[in-house]
Amino acid sequence: MDDAWLLPAIPVAAFVILLLTSQYLPRRGDWVAIIGMAAAFAIVFPIGKDVADAIGAGEFHGSARSWQWLEIPGYIEIRMGTFVDQITLVMLFCVTLVALLVMIYSTGYMHGDRRYGWFYAVISLFVASMLGLVLADNLLLLYFSWELVGLCSMLLIGYYNDRQSAAEAAKKAFVTTRIGDVGLLIGIIILFTQTGTFNIGEILHAAEAGDIQREWLTAAAVCVLAGAVGKSAQFPLHVWLPDAMEGPTPVSALIHAATMVVAGVYLVARMLPLFEVVRGMPELITALGLTTTMLAAFMGLAQRDIKRVVAYSTLNSLGLMFVALGSGAVGAAMLYLFAHAFFKALLFLASGSVIHATEEQEVDKLGGLWGKLPLTAPAFVIGALAMAGLVPLSGFWAKDEILVGVDHGHLTPIVLWTLIVSLPITALYMTRVVMLTFFGEPKDHHVHEHAHESAPVMTMPLLLLAVLAVVSGFVVFEGVGEALGFHSGWLGFIFNEAEGPHHFEVQWGLTILSVVLVVAGIVGGVWFWGGRAEPARRAGAFSPFFYRMFLNRFYFDEVYQFAIDKVVLAAGRVVAVFDRVVVNDTGVNGPGEATDFAASLGKRQQTGLLPNYALAIVVGIVVIAAVAFGYRG
Amino acid sequence: MESGYWLIATVAIPLIAGGVMVLIPDERKDVVRWVSAAVGAVLFAISTYVFFMYEVGGDQYQFFIRWAWLEDVGFLGENGISLAFGIDGIAAPMVLLTGVVAFGGALISWKIEHHNKDFFALFWVLVSGVYGTFTALDLFFFFFWYEVAVLPMYLLIAVWGSSSVFPTFARTKEYSAMKLTIMLVSASILIFIGIFAVFHEAGAGTFDLQTLYAYQFDPRFQKIVFPLFVIGCGVLAGLWPFHTWSPDGHVSAPTAVSMLHAGVLMKLGAFGIIRLGIQLLPEGATFWMPGLMILATANVVYGAFAATAQRDFKYMIGYSSVSHMGLVLMGLATMNVIGVNGAVLQMFSHGVMTAMFFAMVGSVYDQAHTRDMTLFSGLVHRMPLFVFFFGIAGLASLGLPGLSGFIAEFHVFGGAFRTYPWAGALGIFAAAMTAVYILRMMSMSFFGQFNEQWSGLQEMTLLERGTAALLLGFMLFMGLWPAPFIDRIQESVRNLPGVS
């Protein structure tokens, strides 16, 4: 475990090599990035084994190692270090595996792109930052990586740099998440001011022991949560994620589905002890997650772009994870995160394969591709069903665990019922996109005829992810967990320290209800969109008002755009004009002109005419004489 | 104990170089360039040497040397006025900064054709003044070098600068040069008064700073005189509402002068607040710092908002400098170790970052003869390296971790939160605004469809690349491994009276 620092170090090295030399390397050096990633992935296993051994040996509270980075003796000491525990391990596994698959897939998808080397360089930097983020033992290093992750995300969203829309989307993503990051930084500084340390463990300890003033603790918790909300695209900062689809599809799969967007979930999971001691905080987290889930489910119903539908499903999933965290079900949230990483990466890569095959991403123009794409289509369907939560795919187990966790939580039953209501809607829109893309009659025959299955470098990762999407849920069973080397199964493994042994449990009532609802959603979707009529229009006619609301994403973007244009930038213009007119023209030129005016009065006296001067001399003498004599009395 | 002759060399070499320039025949522009590049390289080398040889844990003032100039005459006693040089941990990074930016500026000015020997003569006199101010340990000569650094600016802007014309307003370079000079010189009158008040009050017949530091001034006196120093130096540091010379001045100045002015000269102001204000009059500082904090916060927020509305690259950078110098002042106003540390870090960080900005703008302005960002589009397709370096400077300015800006801002905010949480929060908010105006500019000018109107633009020249790489190296150095800076700075900051 002590070698965990190697994990981010390897991709950083790949980044530097690629940045400096990629144009001279064969294949632009994609193999450097891939080999580095494979090495990182390989290192996860010995680390996992160490953790499992440590747990087996008894008490395990994570393993830390750190180096001093800077110090002002007596005031501030910052150590950079790694911390490995079970949550970290889940993240490490997901990140390295998905990144490796995405890199292999990209050799096909990005083939021949003019910035191919840059793509691999930035992806490597991204993975390094992401690994740094999950390994960080202190909040400063976490913030460090957090921002670099955001930077890479921005660079990759804006990858197609000749499109203005990509530049706008990149800007939007960066600025929106940065609003949250302002909160995170303020939160970190408050925690530092209060505790004198950045170390996460020590801060959590201080929070639980009540060493932090209540007001400051509340402020810090809200601020840190803001950071998580921004990065994980929760309401009200969710607007950037759908637009992030401007980036290349593999990027969406890696960053905007499987890894970066769950950084917020990870942060909340990591800091949960701090949130739990603040009154109202769990409720706030749940409320945000629930709102996000519902909004995303409705918006997903009306989107026309295949990637956007998947993007909304990501929002939907992230909301679910937040709800689980708010209810204190860390194990369930991490299980969902684990399963989600695979099925969501699968959905994105499969939709990428569809786009690659057809060069079209509007579902209105696709259709009937099932036979044309013999590997991609089943893969996408598996991903969609896992997302919908159909038994026995991985999404089912994870979602079921969340429902049980929420049921066990101390929150109002409204939360549970709202979640249950969202299930059939999720199933409905996932079915919709499947039906419109792969079944029914082709809407655009030209596109249909040109469609061809992608190359094996692209389909093989799909198949592997499809298998994982099917089986990864089975880790909930103790037997499977033990077989994989996790003591007392997955949940026991994750929960070893926090809550004692925790076992997978099934509440038959909930489970049956959720399965019935999901199946109902799927059947409804097949029935509604499976036919020959023009489906999107039919759905629109069903309720034009709601359809418009969903399609336009409840007008959040418009409202925010208005706020930026009419408030922030307008304030900027007011300040700029103030600076020129008041500060400069009045404050600076004013005294200048006043001097000028005074001088123009004064210079009138200098007429240059001798009689005037003579007169002045005489008047002067008379006045002085009069004063002098008058003074003498 | 390292020899003080190194410091004298940093002052004397550019001064002599300025003289040598005058002797070079007017038509030998190449000789001027090579001599200047060599002088820059030598200064850079000496500055680096001085920075790294500064011994952490050593004497308070190192590289110390004193040449008597006037003593025991008239009202002057022992060490009345002496050429005393020495640096502490705060001056050491400033010396390094000056070396970096002066070298970069000399390389960037390679392209200057118009009377380049006169340009370089003034340029090197200015650099000499900057070094003198950072290293002077004598009140009289502090002021002397300070003025030497400020005055060449008038000619540099008025002769080699550029005017800007916009639909709504116009600024001629003569106007900007005049405004800058008058404002800075009026401000130095305040400093001048303050210096004589201090000299008279101490009554020791000496301008020697170390002697004066040992003197306990009457608290009432301190409270009266401190504002003279803080406003007098603050004007040069871009203190709101006296910042107004700076955007216009930077916009009108030629590239190298903008680099040096925004990069180094503005730091003289902040440095003066430390050397004259905090060190001489600690109780005055403690009394007045809440006021400075309010103005500094205004700086930070006001500059950030004003920058979002600019169309000219240089105006945007100019206002962002106002905002970032506000962070320096904010750090000083905290009067605690972390905050003042942050202020000094930010002085260095802003110096290299803003020099990079101006160097980049120069590289496109020299070819396009316009700096209106709305006219450009998709520059990345034509000048990818230019966009890369400009982008890095932008990222440093919006506080991306890994680059110098973050480490500095983080200390400033950490310090501010200890004493004035509201100011810290507003500062972080304004730092986030930086992302808005930087990304707005980049998405407007650098990305999107390439505008064919600019197909004649060339990628940065080799010299520009070298300069950018040099500056980038220091941004990364400080961002990734800040310990060498902090070790030096914190030691001296802890010794500052009144800073807790």
Keywords for this structure?
heterodimer, A: 633 residues, mainly alpha, two-stranded antiparallel ribbon, 27 helices, 2 strands, 73% helix, globular, B: 500 residues, two-stranded antiparallel sheet, 19 helices
Q: What does this protein structure show overall?
A:
The complex is a heterodimer of chains A (about 625) and B (about 500). Chain A has 27 helices and two strands. Chain A is mainly α. Helices cover about 70% and strands about 5% of the residues of chain B. Chain B contains 19 helices and four strands. The longest helix of chain B is centred in the last third of the chain and has 32 residues, at about 335-370. The two termini of chain B are about 30 Å apart. Chain B has about 500 residues and is mostly helical. In chain B, a hairpin with a 4-residue loop joins strand 3 and strand 4. Chain B has helices spanning about 5-25, 30-55, 90-110, 115-135, 140-150, 150-160, 175-200, 210-215, 220-235, 245-250, 255-280, 280-310, 315-335, 335-370, 385-395, 405-420, 420-445, 460-480, 485-495, and strands at about 60-70, 80-85, 165, 170. Chain B has a two-stranded antiparallel ribbon with strand order 1-2. Chain B has a two-stranded antiparallel ribbon with strand order 3-4. Classes of the chains: A mainly alpha (about 625), B mainly alpha (about 500). Chains A and B meet through strand 1, helix 5, helix 6 and helix 26 of A and helix 10, helix 12, helix 14, helix 16 and helix 17 of B.
